[in-house]
Amino acid sequence: MRDPAEPAEVELDDVVSKYRRHVNAGLASLFKFMGFEAVEWRAEGSTIWDTEGREYLDLLAGFGTLALGHRPAAVVAAVKEQLDRMPLSSRVLFNKPVADLAAELAAILPGEIEKSFFCHSGAEAVEGALKLARRFTGRPKIVATIGGFHGKTLGALSVSGRDVYRKPFEPLVGGVTHVPYGDAAALAEAVDQTTAAVIVEPIQGEGGVIIPPDGYLPAAREICDRTGALLIADEVQTGLGRTGRMFACEHSGVVPDIVCLAKALGGGVMPLGAFSSTAKIWACLEENPLLHSSTLGGNPLACAAGLAAIREIQRQDLPARAARLGEHALARVRELRSQHPDIISDVRGRGLLIGVQFTDSDIAGLVIAGLAQRRIIGAYTLNNPEVIRIEPALTIPEPDLGRGLDGLAESVKQTAGILAEL
Question: What is the per-residue pLDDT across 98-151, written as a single tens digit (0 to 9) for each?
Fold first, then answer.
């Protein structure tokens, strides 16, 4: 039997052709433009190998999904064990992985949040959170933020804050108002007695790694308390250790009413999302438990992965590791900015979620292409293409992180040289 880890005889042109004909021609062009013309084949930790056996350093970690790196042993083992037992649920008998994961989440979620619904993605989690807020409050209005990113299903897109993704699908779900992120006064003006919820990221990820002013989230909590609106924290990208705390809202001491999770929750092995809230709020879904349901959401395979992922994050104390490594990485990238202030306009971050903002999105594109030449995986943030993210696995070996930052510095220097010749 062929070793699945061995490079396969795969024709790049054949894969690209199938992408163009049967997947998305624009996506194929984007990959080629960014310089990533290869077919991934296997991965381990923070390393990816293509079908030619070439090695890549992953500084993107699946946009934060791979907090434990590629193929974390404990999660893979848990999924294999569950696969041999029962991959999917009957949906009419009690499911132990669901019960165990819900209890594990209740133990780590902030405040009195103790009930969870499991789905497949962050967008689905946001959809459920919006429905829960409207159901509980009986109110129609949602207040969201400019630059926020909550997913691309219709409801999640409606509360996301970039027109390039919204305009082609209008009219979207009604009753949504967008206000500037970090502006407590604008938020207070927008929230009233008809507002069901305020949805906010504790740190805007796709908005360009935007950290709000210190008093912003506490102000949002006070505004919601005063008006009877619910506060939804979208922790899809920031949750489970990414920013140096288990949840990013903990940096400001704020306890939300509803939390949305995904990405790292599946341990980098299974797609898994969740929205969670308090027993008081959740009661509005329990009179008719089929008001919100999913045939495949909360399946045993995904929940086994989620349970193993949370336990590994705790066992390795990855929030503390992210805080320590992030502080070092942030200092290095700020030094890089001081060397190239003409093309790097800002550097910001918390934990291992760091944004490097360039003076132009084309410059950011050149830097990403330079990373690709060095076989380092990177990408810009979806709502702010001037910003390249540094978002590796929380388990990345320190020498690998250093090598990645060296590659970034080399790419920035190369880009500066190109621009100087123009």
Answer: 999 999 999 999 999 999 999 999 999 999 999 999 999 999 999 999 999 999
Helices within 340-397 (DSSP H only)? 361-373
CATH of 73-315, one of 3.40.50.2300, 3.90.226.10, 3.40.640.10, 3.40.50.1400: 3.40.640.10
- Write out the catalytic residue numbers: 149, 234, 263
**Domain 12-64+317-421 belongs to what architecture?**
Alpha-Beta Complex (3.90)
3-class SS of residue 200 = strand
d(CA 298, CA 250): 26
| Sign of the torsion angle spanned by Cα atoms 248, 252, 253, 254 | negative
Q: Can you give the pTM of this predicted structure?
A: 0.96
Which stretches of 140-183 are assigned E, i.e. beta strand?
141-146, 176-180
For residues 289 and 412, what is the distance between their CA atoms, to the nearest angstrom? 54
Domain boundaries, the chain: 12-64+317-421, 73-315
Torsional sign, CA 359, 362, 410, 379 = positive
Looking at the DSSP bridge assignments, the partners of residue 273 are 119
- How far is Cα 303 from Cα 111, in angstroms, rounded to an integer? 23
Rounded to whole angstroms, the Cα distance separating 232 from 230 reads: 6
Enter the tokens of residue 43. 């991965």
